[in-house]
Design brief:
With 434 residues, this protein is an alpha/beta fold. The protein folds into 3 domains: 197 residues, Rossmann fold, CATH 3.40.50; 83 residues, N-(1-d-carboxylethyl)-l-norvaline Dehydrogenase, domain 2 (Orthogonal Bundle), CATH 1.10.1040.10; 134 residues, NAD(P)-binding Rossmann-like Domain (Rossmann fold, 3-Layer(aba) Sandwich). The protein contains 16 helices and 14 strands. Strands 3-2-1-4-5-6 form a 6-stranded parallel beta sheet, with helices on both faces. Strands 11-10-9-12-13-14 form a 6-stranded parallel beta sheet. It has a two-stranded parallel sheet with strand order 7-8. The N and C termini lie far apart (54 Å). 44% of the residues are buried. The model has no long low-confidence stretch (mean pLDDT 96).
Length: 434
Amino acid sequence: MKVTMLGCGYVGLVSGTCFAEFGASVTCFDIDKTRVDKLLQGKLPIYEPGLDTLLEKNVKQGRLSFTDNLNDCIPDSDLVFVAVGTPSRRGDGHADLSYVYRAVQDIAPFLKGYTVIVDKSTVPVGTARNVKRIIAETNPEADFDVASNPEFLREGAAIADFMRPDRVVIGVENDRADSVLRELYRSINLIEAPIFSTDLESAELIKYASNAFLATKISFINEMSVLCEEVGADVHAVAKGMGLDDRIGRKFLHPGPGYGGSCFPKDTQALVRIAQENGASSRIVEAVIEVNEAQKARMIKKIRSAIGGNESGKTIAVLGLTFKPETDDMRDAPSLAILPKLIENGCQINAHDPQGVDEAKKILPPEVRYYDDIYTALENVDAVVLMTEWNMYRNLDMSLIRDKLKQPVFIDLRNVYEPDSMKTLGFDYHCIGR
């Protein structure tokens, strides 16, 4: 089975590499020749644990290749996956579909033989119908079907998620397209992962609804953390007690500085816009977005309070910049909302992150100082802020850290450490909801 993946970004590279591992012949296409050239040299544009090894293996075995020429891949493809970006449109929160529509318009003239065009990008309801219209108008002779196959990949665990998914969602209009996609995913039948077929519109909405629900859990427990601080409760105990109920579940009930990344912020905004365009209410999702923004603002106040009420002239060491561990993704990371505000008020930031520095340098204020060594970043600072819970931050030498600080102030925005232990070590320890 021959597959073309349009877009060599996060979704395209992970999906294309994993399909090759399933045994398909995969070509990843990108209009960025520089990116393609680097991939041909084995250089990845993203960090995802294990992806480099899997990609190298499938390239060597001849199942995975890269090109910037549509004629090299589209005419012979059984399936073409559209995995280009759908960022929030500037100003209104709608998903920007210009990359999707440009991609399908570009490929339409090259289609030969029956081909299934698959939306892999996260797209609003109705996009597949528009893709079908664009292709039919551009190439009336094309023999094709359009399908929706949303991705549910967690950055940092994407390969495991793809190989052992909770479910595969397929949106189709007929059995012919359904059978082609099921054949591609045949390998996961061995682990009995459910393949769920539905209509196009439902498949498109499942992705948005899933992400909005997970974002709701995060905002809910963050809102509960505020109440816990006020009444003297422990948010961890509250989350554990809730999570033991199978109807609720323990996942995504972890307090923190707010959700970020490439999915939750833009997908919740887009779902609100979809509801508005169709005259439906989305009050819960709107509240989720508001709570998330408020949580980031509350973290600024928490840091300010911990260092004496005024950050001007202070130096803070920040551990972790990416929105979560095991990724270099800085998109909508809480650090982007928190650190610039502190810098504006005269605070110096010393930053460390094991993977995110290169991306951070592009978007954080130039005043930020970056360090390769954790403990050098902590030298003679007024406070430490643990922003992202990378594993390397979970077992720090606290005695050494305490001795390096001007004042032993430790602000743990991920609740990695235990309050009693930190206080015993002599720290002025601040966390969330405890």
